[in-house]
Amino acid sequence: MTFFSILFALIAEQYRPVTANHWIARISIRWLDWVASEFGGKTEQGASPVGARMACLVAFILPTFLVFALYVVFMVTYPILGFLWNILIAYLFFGFRQFSHSFTAVHEAITNHDLPAARLALSAWYGPELDASNLTEAEVISLALERAIIGSHRHVFGVLFWFMMPMGPAGVVLYRLADTAAQRWSEKGDFNLSESARHFFFVLDWIPSRITAMGFAIVGNFEGAVYAWRHLTQKWSDSLSAVILAAGSGALGVRLGEPMSEPDSDEALRMAEAGEPVFYEVGLEPNERTMRSAIGLVWRLVIAWMALLLMLTTALWLG
């Protein structure tokens, strides 16, 4: 059932995309804003630590329990309704088009050698947090790749992982709400709420992020992905994103993130003699071809996931 639920949801999402302005996204944001308003403002830093943890429980557990309860009722009474419920939840919370549309806009501008248009598309994607007016073409491509790699994990591969858990569609809702809250509450400036949401999401995403990184290594440049994963994650401040971005950059064979300072030959020799690790940048500067390669990398991993699910489904049927 899981394989066909995801397959039908992916097909439906290609024909009628669930964008960032979709009604389910608006309802999720309103729900999180209401919870933040009820539990926030208790201290100078916003919600109290206890209140922030309670806000996470209310914001995430209540919708998750509702979705799971309906799933159980449907499966016990009419399994076909449970199947349709799976498809609906997967369709609403998968989000290929939430990042692929913006990535395509940047990619098309780069393909047409229109750097100003690429900067505008990137600025619209990132929002006020990024000033892209003076970025070079390589920097625009690098930032677009980073955003797309993280988006592919949080809207596709992380969702797939939680959909395969015993909670089924409820796991999908839990994961996506936690991710949305971590971003939304950070924008509101409530320190305790945002920290609690980030910690909650860290726990949920620790295993899926590493599975996605391993997936990139398998379907891409394995040696480059493993090297970058082991030695270059310090280039990004967020530990979850760092694992995915390092493995993704290594799998594509390109350099992403802030450049590392490489020691000169004398310093490298001294570090080697002292037994200290010496790490160097690997890969080429990203270009338009890299963007096409990234699309292929993501789709290869999607196909690998679906093939694995199909084999598991077939094994269960035959068993």
From TrEMBL:
Membrane topology: Multi-pass membrane protein
GO biological process: cobalamin biosynthetic process; response to antibiotic
Pfam families named among the record's database cross-references: CobD_Cbib (PF03186)
CC per GO annotation: plasma membrane
Subcellular location(s) of the protein: Cell membrane
Principal subcellular localisation of the protein: membrane
Alphabetized InterPro entries for the sequence: Beta-lactamase_Reg (IPR052966), Cobalamin_biosynth_CobD/CbiB (IPR004485)
A GO MF term: ABC-type vitamin B12 transporter activity
Pathway linked to the protein: Cofactor biosynthesis; adenosylcobalamin biosynthesis
Keyword line: Cell membrane, Cobalamin biosynthesis, Membrane, Transmembrane, Transmembrane helix
Top-rank taxon: Bacteria
Family: Belongs to the CobD/CbiB family.
Protein purpose: Converts cobyric acid to cobinamide by the addition of aminopropanol on the F carboxylic group.
Protein name (database record): Cobalamin biosynthesis protein CobD
Organism: Polynucleobacter brandtiae
